[in-house]
Amino acid sequence: MTINVPVARLVGAEKTYGSGPNAVHALAGVDLDVVGGRFLAVMGPSGSGKSTLMHCLAGLDTLTRGSVIVGGTELGSLSDRALTRLRRDRIGFVFQQFNLIPTLTCRENIELPVRLAGRRLDRAWFDTIVGAVGLGHRLDHRPAELSGGQQQRVAVARALATKPDLMFADEPTGNLDSRTGAEILAFLRDAVDELGQTVAMVTHDPVASTYAHGAVILSDGRIVDRVEEPTVDAVLDLLTNVGGLTCSA
Amino acid sequence: MLRVTLANIGAHKRRLVSTFTAVVLGVAFLAGVLVQTATLQHKFDVMFDTSSAEVDAVVRSDRSAPGYDDGERIHAPLDPAVLDRVRLVPGVADAQADWEGTAVVIGADGDPLGTNGPPKLGLTWHDDPELSAYRIVDGRAPVAPDEVVLAVGTASDGDLSVGDRTTVLVPDEVAVTVVGLATFGGRDSAGPTTTALFSEAGARAHLATRSGGVDGTVGLGRILLTAAPGVDDDTFASTVRAAAGDGTETLSRSEFRAENRDGIDDVMNFLRPALLSFALIALLVAAFSIYNTFAIIVAQRTREAGLLRAIGASRSQTLRAVLAESALVGLVASIVGLGLGLLVAVGLGSLLARGGLGLPGGLLLAPATSIGCVVVGTVVTVLCALGPAVRASRVAPMQALRAADVDQSATSVVRLVIGSLTAAAAVVGVLWATVGSGGMAAGGLAIALGVLALVVLGPIVAAPAGRVIGLPLRLRGVTGDLARLNAVRNPRRTASSSAALMIGVAIVALFTVLAASITATVDDQIRRQVGGDLVVTALGGTVPPGTAAEVAEQPEVATATGFGPATLTLDGQEEQVITSDVPTLTGLLETDPVAGDMSSVVGDRLAVSQAEADRRGWAVGDTIDVERVDGTRTELVVGAVYRTTDLLGDVLVPRTVVVDHGQPLTDFAVMVELADGVSVAAGRAAIERTVADLPTVDVMDRDELSASIAQEVNTVLYLVYGMLALSIVIALMGIANTLSLSTLERTRELGLLRAVGQTRRQARAMIRLESVVVAVYGTALGMAVGVLGAWVLVASDTSGQIGGFTVPADQLAVVLALGALAGVVAAIRPASRASRRQPLEAIAGG
Is the ipTM of this complex over 0.90? Predict the structure, then answer.
């Protein structure tokens, strides 16, 4: 993955719910480049539009105006089928909770997107990602038999399985204690630094943002700030400016 | 809590739709059956009361004539002197000779009127309105022997009107003129029958041939009497009885009416339980659907129940809430079902009319029927909700609030023990029925126990069985894997939603196999026994006398002989015998002789079956005292003993013994062997030319003969399929509903699958395949039960009617394929609803 080439872009992105005087502008004109080989944190208080931004970027939701381009493809013109294929082949997901199919074993969960595509998972790559998240001995267990942290690790491995252009993580540590959360964040960072992946993470936790290469701060549907190599203090300051600390957490 | 109940019903409308529909359909079928049978009974009662007119007493011979008319004994002719005697009895207002018989009316287009089944009546016209329910509405009464009055309905069916000339078969052909049209009790006809009324002279000439003549003089059929006003019925009957004298029997007014109703009571006593059992099957299947729906709804509401408990609702309050909800749903659905039941009754009515049991007029809805159906529907619904409701009320408040979708453990030891014991009892029942002496009743009990065992063990069997059935899905990759795993993830649910289908399919399979076994047995019998090339039969089983001789004269025919009924008193015991040219018949029908020589049975010899010989202690060479219906006596010697009785009955007597002794000789059938070198087609053409003037006569080869019997069996089979269709539909709705509710539970999981790349098509396929696994599981289980059940019944059959057990693999393969297809159909709505859901909705829902 070449450094500094955007793998995903938002151009003039607007997302409006409802119409007329009751309209809510979740995104009010956002331009954003997600640069390859970097770990980006998207931050902001509740209702700032960060989740909407990520859902639109991931092809889970559509924009009212503007465009989303992932890996050179404009998503607005794609059918549901094509969008599904894009998510399957080029995007990886880690959600806050309920990441795994309860009837499938960990191994089957990891292989799921690849098998949905009707392919087989490259053995070497499977070993690499399983090794990276440290799950070797629990592969044949079902999710219910794992702790929350272990489940999130399986989710990270599943997201990596297709060697996606872009990995999305939506509050991946929201349901975890701080130590387990730190492990997951470290895995995500390793995925970028060592496996050359690109990660975009939505979070409102300033500590989580310190694992990213850069952070953007959203407020009222707009990007109000950007930070390189964020620190807890710097992010806290910015969030305080937009009133994020009183509304979130 | 009532408000919570009402609010719940409002909130879960869609989930309750299937419970509602299941109750509606179950109750509708039940109501339809009850209403239709009550209506039919009432109409028949009215019809027979009408046909009894104001007759106060009936005198007839106390002896039988050969043969049966619609399964009823035919009485020997009555001495005309009896009429002169009873006319003089004080208190008799009127006494008239009366004959009844079969008269097939030929319509204007040359085809016989009426369907195979309902009687085609030939009656005597009486001018006295108290003796008959027929009233002339057009033309005049018959006077000459060749004049008839037709029922209005019969005339319009045949496109005949007053003045037309046509033919009536009694069974001899009689050329007649229609001189009048009559109504029956104000209706166009007596139910589905056809009616031709003859003058007394006509009836004596044509209808009496069935009853026979004694020594050349024609006897009376019977005497109908009316009493003078003020004479007590029973006194009247006993006075008449005394005057009528020996050799007669007298029926009082009420006895005559009771006898008229008897025949139809037999039909109703068979029909009512048969129809009711199908209605109960539908209700049982509906009960499974209702149970399942409540189980799922309650499971989904465990959280809500916990919350109610946490804020202070007592356990009995939560229990009452669910029960009140089920009672309300059950009540409303039952009332709707009752309404729909009237439509079902109309449908059943037209189905029965095809079987010859149709009667015009409206439906009879007794208050007891309505109340009964509503109560049954409501009680079944509440009972089905009881289990899940009790389970919900046992949940501790905090446990419920924490509850995630944890699988209920289905493998309880109690279940395993009860199920195994039931299964063991079923096996014992099977042994008792097949090896032991239990017979078909024990077989039926064993089948019921087997089904019960499967229902109890279902949740334990469902998971491993579903996994095996789902094995081919591996070929569909991960979509198939997911479907297979989903199908068995909640074994209790899989078991109960497939159990309904299992029961329906089991009965379909049972009847399919039984029908195939019966058909194969008959086919085998015909192939083994019928040695000739062609068989001549006739509508009503009566080939006109002389037909056999005419056929035998054709140059294409080598031999032809008929066989028909006669009555003889053998060693003091009156019996129905078969008369024929025995040596010739033996060449055309396999008799399987065990002693003596069949070809010797001519002149003063007869042949008896092994069973008859054993019963009476007869052996070859024994002499038997024989009395004919005209009172003449002779002695016959047993010339042979044979084993095959399917077509030949127990006693075979040469024609010469009976001919010219007061019994007309009609034939059940005429067996034909063609001359050497004559093809079946050519032979058949020749015979058809010979019988061209006999519209009721039919020529068949052996294949057609077995096909015609197979067709009769299949008609019954299709009727059974029709009755079961509703149960199957209810079962499928149950599967569809369970699937809908399950996918609703799995909203987030489906959303996740879509997010990580499952296409809509894959989502649909996943749900469809899950449904197919459940449906195939239910179908396969049902087929296993049905086939095994049929085997048990065949093996325990002691009557010998079903000789061999035949499994129609092709038909069962169709049933299995339909089962799988049903799974696909049941999944259409749930699958499309689930796949339309946006992945984001599901994730956001978390």
Answer: no
